[in-house]
């Protein structure tokens, strides 16, 4: 009985964590697919992490993965995590607030990944 009570008490947190992990997976799959496909399309070697073409592909991959992850997170959270009070706000306004709150994550993600790739090369 205690497990059921704990699950009910922390239901929102558990759902948020589950969808956070799934959002990360969506972002990574999108990013690596675009990065790998872009490199193949442009004929860049796998080890190239500093050419101008790589930076363009990298930037496109980062932007698209961020959009995909934010959209996935918004729609899954809207359906399964947001409260009844959250549902009183229009979906457009909810999305704008949700996405703007994650703009900082785009720049952090971009910088960490970019400088990490340079450091590892």
Mean pLDDT: 88
Structural class: mainly alpha
SSE run: HHHHH
| Apparent shape | elongated
Can you put this structure into words, describing what you see?
The protein has helices spanning 2-9, 11-42, 52-80, 91-100, 103-120. By secondary structure, it is mainly alpha-helical. The longest helix is centred in the N-terminal third of the chain and has 32 residues, at 11-42. The radius of gyration is 18 Å and the shape is elongated. The mean pLDDT is 88.
Topology:
Blueprint: H1 2-9, H2 11-42, H3 52-80, H4 91-100, H5 103-120
Helix pairs in contact: 2-3, 3-5
Throw out a few tags for this protein.
single chain; 121 residues; mainly alpha; 5 helices; 0% strand
């Amino acid at each position: 009985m205690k497990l059921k009570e704990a699950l009910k008490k922390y239901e929102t947190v558990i759902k948020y964590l589950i969808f956070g992990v799934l959002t990360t997976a969506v972002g990574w799959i999108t990013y690596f697919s675009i990065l790998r496909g872009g490199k193949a399309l442009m004929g860049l070697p796998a080890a190239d992490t500093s050419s101008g073409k790589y930076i363009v592909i990298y930037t496109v991959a980062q932007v698209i993965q961020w959009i995909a992850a934010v959209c996935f997170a918004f729609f899954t959270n809207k359906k399964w995590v947001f409260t009844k009070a959250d549902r009183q706000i229009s979906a457009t306004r909810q999305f704008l607030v949700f996405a703007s709150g994650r703009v900082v994550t785009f720049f952090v993600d971009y910088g960490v990944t970019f400088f990490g790739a340079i450091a590892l090369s």
